[in-house]
Design a protein that fits this description.
Elements lengths: L1 H18 L5 H19 L5 H22 L7 H17 L4 H25 L4 H19 L5 E3 L6 H17 L7 H24 L3 H11 L1 H6 L4 H27 L1 E3 L6 H16 L4 H26 L6 H34 L1
Antiparallel strand pairs: 1-2
Length: 357
């Protein structure tokens, strides 16, 4: 009897220990990465404006993750959806619409761009890569038409998400932390607003991917034959997936236009490579396993990318004209580092086998 009582007590204790909430490895890596990044910014004398810019582009990384990892669809439409979203947002703001409405319109414009790619792929049976190239080629002209033929549309003096709250936020920061915060108040406001938008979108997208439609989209990328066997429309899932991913790119374009203070027809050039780098950086540094973790990793990867690029500029005192070269180098390192790491691991294993033999 005493043994049974002791055994039951041990079971209860074991159950209570297993029921305690545990911090996942992903959470630990994420926290460590944020701490290291903060130290990196401080020591490297990096302007915190890089954080705001990284957050404005963060949804591009999520969009690329949806198409390349979830749908397994080689989509380049993001290069066209991003400037279209920014152009729509800028035109509406200049015409007197609220920034919130303009951001939503940017998302819709990006979604419609993705819809065109999906329809070309589905109805004309054109490969996804070629379909997206066709769309981004035409998107250049569409963006120019949206901005009435101008290649650049400034937002100076217009009410944006940033300018609307700039004065009261600056006054509050000075009152709370002193005059030293005057210069950084705008950057901190960008971080707060864009961070809120990114978190809100990630939460909504996470719950969407857990719905029946979201699960069907996830299954489409892994096993389209199974989706068809279950009686679901495989092509419809591709259409919805491309609309959501490019809608996020359009939303990111509208945020970037307000952060930069202008919309430009060339804002999306090479953006898909930047998004791929963000996805790979997030996967390598955070090693996510669940869908929610992968969404966070993609957004975080873009943030790390922009901070790394800003550090290179600060460390080498490079002119702004070198931005594309620096971006190319950072992308090359991000894409090549995992392969070099795998080759190094393979070489170590080979050396160990030779030593033991």
């Amino acid at each position: 009897m005493g043994i049974d009582t002791q055994t039951s007590q041990e079971k209860v204790k074991a159950d209570s220990e297993t029921s305690k909430p545990k911090i996942s490895g992903f959470a630990i890596r994420f926290i460590l990465l944020m701490i290291i990044t903060g130290i990196f910014i401080s020591v490297g004398n990096v302007n915190i404006g890089a954080i705001g810019q990284g957050l404005s582009y963060a949804l591009v990384g999520v969009a690329v993750f949806l198409t390349f990892r979830i749908l397994d669809f080689p989509d380049l439409t993001i290069d066209g959806a991003f400037p279209i979203g920014g152009a729509i947002c800028a035109v509406l703001i200049v015409s007197g619409q609220s920034p919130e409405v303009s951001v939503v319109a940017g998302f819709i414009a990006g979604s419609l761009t993705g819809l065109v790619t999906a329809l070309i792929h589905v109805f004309f049976k054109i490969e996804g890569l070629l379909a997206s190239i066709i769309v981004i080629t035409g998107a250049y002209t569409i963006t120019l038409r949206i901005m009435s033929g101008a290649s650049n549309l400034p937002l100076i003096g217009e009410e944006t998400l940033i300018s609307r709250h700039a004065r009261p936020f600056r006054a509050w920061m000075i009152e709370q932390f002193g005059e030293d915060m005057r210069r950084q108040s705008s950057n901190l406001l960008e971080i707060a607003i864009f961070g809120f938008v990114v978190i809100l979108v990630l939460v909504l997208l996470y719950f969407f991917l857990r719905t029946e439609t979201g699960l069907a989209i996830r299954a489409t990328g892994k096993n389209p034959q199974m989706v068809q066997a279950m009686g679901l429309n495989h092509h419809l899932m591709v259409v919805i997936g491309l609309m959501v991913s490019n809608g996020l790119a359009g939303l990111a374009g509208s945020l970037a236009a307000q952060q930069l203070g202008f919309a430009d027809v060339n804002l999306g050039v090479g953006l898909i490579i930047r998004g791929l780098a963000a996805v790979i950086i997030g996967e390598v540094l955070l090693r996510p396993k669940t869908v929610g973790e992968k969404l966070i990793a993609a957004a975080t990867g873009m943030l790390v990318f922009d901070i790394s690029r800003a550090w290179v500029f600060a460390a080498l005192s490079l002119p702004s004209t070198d931005i594309r070269l620096v971006s190319a180098i950072v992308v090359m390192i991000a894409l090549g580092a995992p392969n070099l790491h795998d080759r190094w691991q393979a070489w170590r294993k080979k050396q160990k086998r030779e030593v033991t033999s």
